[in-house]
Records
---
Amino acid sequence: MAKDKKSCSFCGRSEEEANLLIAGLHGHICNICVSQAYDIVIQEGNFSGASPKNMKLELKSPKEIKAFLDEYVIGQDDAKKVLSVAVYNHYKRILQTVGDDGVEIEKSNILLVGETGTGKTLLAKTIARKLNVPFTIVDATVLTEAGYVGEDVESILSRLLQAADYDVAKAERGIVFIDEIDKVARKGDNPSITRDVSGEGVQQALLKILEGSVVNVPPQGGRKHPDQKYIQVDTKNILFIAGGAFAGIEKDIAKRLNTNAIGFKGETAMKYDEKGLLQFVNATDLRSFGLIPELLGRLPLVTHLNPLDAATLRSILTEPKNAITKQFEKLFALDEVKLEIEDDALNYFVEKTMELGLGARGLRSLTEKVFTELMYHIDELPETYLLTRKKAETMLDKHQLLQIRKAS
């Protein structure tokens, strides 16, 4: 008697037609039907049943996280340590098994305070890459209260969903970086004078998603597609990292500490370099700057990033794994041109960046201008090309430097 041939109970494919047949109690299912069923679940937005605790997460120790950050980010050791421990504790909290002691670890979102170009965004992006979790960057300046021109706060989660390929469970353990959070500071001491829809209004709207709640998220943005189906996203395990330059906050810090920055008169007050005051920043100073107490309560971890000095900028050019010069050397090598850069040319880039006060972002803008010009003439370059200081100076005239300053 011939043995009964197995087939998929859903589509009828035979064992020979399918790559894999999975046996159940009363039938079989092939790998193709499994894949299609998974796609349907994701599209319907009902994948939230899979708990992030049951998903594989490559949790690294704080020292491992910091070591990885050291490979890509130069300096900022204090900020790296704070971030490494905070991220480690956050994901350890997600993976914890709820015990009988009733102790529930609360989420600790992070606020980074530092000048433009000091590495706030790069730190958050690098950590997300190390942990292999979805990551998105949102500019706080485009957010407004619901009902006003701009983007709703819920659009933050729409972008995170996109970064997670609409896998809700994956998005629910992701990282969101909210840039320029200082730009939504309250415009005045009295919140009732005018409707501050892009300032305090945004801060109020952020409270719900920062604390942790189930939010109905439009996958493509709510205002342009009002009839679309919403996806429910639980934000309690999403780590939010906010960053801002907070220009002028040193005055609030100095006032609280009863100090004077160097260059100002004062007999009894202690004196600090104005830029050095940032290390003492706390919630009181941020509240004076214009962040509401409720928002600060949901961003309990505050750390600062130091302004970049010339030595740090010089290291940024050559030391990280993805250093600017290494990237361009590789690009030129793909065209069979060996790019060599004179040390004095690198010093020139650093000097101009310090002069313009643009930080690491400005440093990249300067080098991009020069290397883009060289790349345009790639067919004319010799097999080995040496970039000297004089050549760099010629390619970066005053007009171009003015454009870089405006763009940054």
Note: The longest helix spans residues 77-95.
---
Amino acid sequence: MIRCIRTEFKKCMYFPFFLLAALGTLALCLAAIGEYDYTGKSRTILEMMVRGVDGQTVDQSGLVLWLNGCSGWLTLILPLLTTFGYLATLSSERQSGETGAVLLRAGNLRYCMGKVTGGALAGGVGAAAGYGLFGLLMAAVFPAFSGFPPEEQGFYLEIYGASSSAVVIVKRLLGFFLYGIFVSFFGIGVAVAVRDRYMLLCLPFLMNYVYTQVVNKLLWGGSMDGAPGLGQIFSMDTVMDVSADLYWGMSLVFMAVVYVALVFLFWLEVKRRGYYG
């Protein structure tokens, strides 16, 4: 089983695919909103890099801007970036008939588990690598978080439940790795039953959008009632906020259940169709 997962992981991490995920994540983080000026006009993080910052507040520190990078277009496009390698290799194997030989060696269940697990892990690694590169860029361009007064630092440390900026960094990198795994299930789920290449590229966007809208409605309804409830459990942002909170743990369990279901559906599809070719 471990060998199957490692093999599929390596396929999805083929350097061009990995580079696309990492650099795509970096570019989308740069396109996130970094601040609003006194007129209320927004500025992207890339604009702040090019034009510079007017003053120096903790909100303009490298760490805070790094944390702000996970927003905007990233949340919509990331599912495709993290699973592009998975979709490309699976489509190629189906077209060439290679899947039949793999199934003979590995067996249906091990093949399906290796394929889904390897693709999910590759999605998490690709996303975390791009987000890490974004963090290094923010640290090189913007003022250091540690250079601001302790009371200003304390505000953000309290928000993220950390004792130091190093803890914040570790938690967010781990959280973004888990987030990359979570969002990858859109592409992996579509690939279970869909073979058309154009649909494989389009459907993850649509599924992600619909899912996000439904979860946002649940979150909004929960906030009106004074309790986050189901929306907090199903929200992909919850996985990113690593903590000892009950909702974070339940969100991880939900993510695991989704992937177990994908493995089962993939296995049923292989049993129904036989060897892909």
Note: The mean pLDDT is 85.
---
Amino acid sequence: MKKIEAIIRTSKFEDVKTALADLGIDFFSYWDASGVGNEKMRRQHGYRGTVDTQFIRRIFLSIVLRDINVKKTIDCIEKAAFTGETGDGMIFCYNIEESVRISNGSRGDASTAGPGDMKLIE
């Protein structure tokens, strides 16, 4: 099993969520994130005033899934989150040693199985 973490632009969240649902990923955790990167600070002027692009709002995604689904999921996030501009985000992948579904005690791959899981394995 693997854990995918992605930091994406808030403006791309709906695109990523829809793309993941189309792929069969029907559950993931997410939360607002902020940080400082290496981007050059620029000021953008728009109808909402001046914005420092160094501090573009981000969403942090966390998904645990079977190894067989990792490449498709990473490719999906990368494509849906892409704008072509500096600051599009990052994707990280980690090994998961164990997982337990608290509601029924299932462990390992069985604990991550969901209704959409079979769609990815076809």
Note: The mean pLDDT is 84.
